[in-house]
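Follow-up to my post from last week.
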Amino acid sequence: MDKRPIGVFDSGVGGLTAVLELHKILPGEDIIYFGDTARVPYGTRSRETVCKYATQIVHFLASQKVKAMVVACGTISTNLSGAEITSAAPNIPHITLVDPSVQAALAATRTGRIGVMATPATIRTNTFNNCIAKSMPQAEVLGVACPLLVPLVENGMTNFENQITRLTLEMYLQPLRDFGVDTLILGCTHYPLLLNIVGDMMPGVTLIDSGACAARATKQALEQGNLLSKNQTGSTIYYMTDTINNFASVAKKFLFEDIEDQCHHILIEELDNF
Amino acid sequence: MDKRPIGVFDSGVGGLTAVLELHKILPGEDIIYFGDTARVPYGTRSRETVCKYATQIVHFLASQKVKAMVVACGTISTNLSGAEITSAAPNIPHITLVDPSVQAALAATRTGRIGVMATPATIRTNTFNNCIAKSMPQAEVLGVACPLLVPLVENGMTNFENQITRLTLEMYLQPLRDFGVDTLILGCTHYPLLLNIVGDMMPGVTLIDSGACAARATKQALEQGNLLSKNQTGSTIYYMTDTINNFASVAKKFLFEDIEDQCHHILIEELDNF
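User reply:
Got it. Predicted complex:
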């Protein structure tokens, strides 16, 4: 039994889709969430910049004595290496989006044709393709960079009938449809908010919610490491680098609850003290 | 005659629309451009964060001994006050987007119904409305926050027939059309790349390019202050906080030339040394 909190982090609010799933499947766990809203988005920046920002967050969460870290951001999961995370936070197990969603995709695919939608910074790394190839060399994988989806989600354009979002998705989904994918990894934690629309536009294709997969892999890792808290109810604290208002109002769309009282603003320059 | 460079800055690449105009009307001037590409966009962040970032840039440009500063960013122009800029860079004249584009709009309007398209952070301040009211109290002004336009421009969705961009613009332009504006300020330096599309969708409406207005106001200020360089040809240096590649490839869309050789990467943490 281990009462330390789980650390979950993302460039912004996308990682809250993983928090939502953690609340469901691990209701007794305390969670510390970190969203770098003063520097979001990461998905259109260089690897150097992504890694610099992400390493600061890993240091901060390590200082908060978390028992595990969930990298609930596709861009960080694919740009910061496991060795870099371990070096910044020794002896703290971490779960990225990649392995859990690749395992789910491999279990789901019948044809071996798998699609990946993610940010440009994620697609550039080929991490999903390489990870799939290790377990299923004959798989055929198409990755599509979707730079406009994060702004659409962050600006609340997620209603089922939204024509702008549908037209934008059509641009990204057409090559995946032409390629004949039967399984599609949503490789960015913002995208589950578009799950219904993508499902409607890609009938018969299995959609993999990478944030939810990472949450389930976290439960498994805690069980195996005998690290579960066994509390009845856990609490969640949210840290963000821009002001609380913006974060709390967007977070409501992800979590369906008001979390303003659980929010703490932390300045980027304070991060270097940890 | 004053050979010192002109400083021009923006959260990212948008301010290059002002540089393009400066190159045309002041070809003999040296220019130092600063784009904070590791932290763009500013237009969806809080005032506190915008001002903190922008003040670092003002300090940097002051250290480069510029003779004038062009705030070629609508969000900075409307969130950082003139007093804050002067305090960070004493004795250096500065030109924001606001006054020059408001003067142009007041000269153009026949009906006194003026529209402003800008980022959420700009619209929130009411700066354009207040500035118009000072000179023309009877004017009726409608500001529309357009959070998706910067991502569209940064991702190159600027071709005349682009249906996603047109549908997005329709959402922002409809209330301006209903309001009956005869003059529309593009209050963000990214938007001139959409000038042709907006013009096509708003026939009969005078469009005000705020970056170009700021550039012309800069020429006037240098003439009045006897600060022109009188060189035949000036050179431009570009600083950016993320890597050079990204910047140079997007900059090509703004400047129609390859500027990679004139680019210098500067780390955010180095900014605090100036």
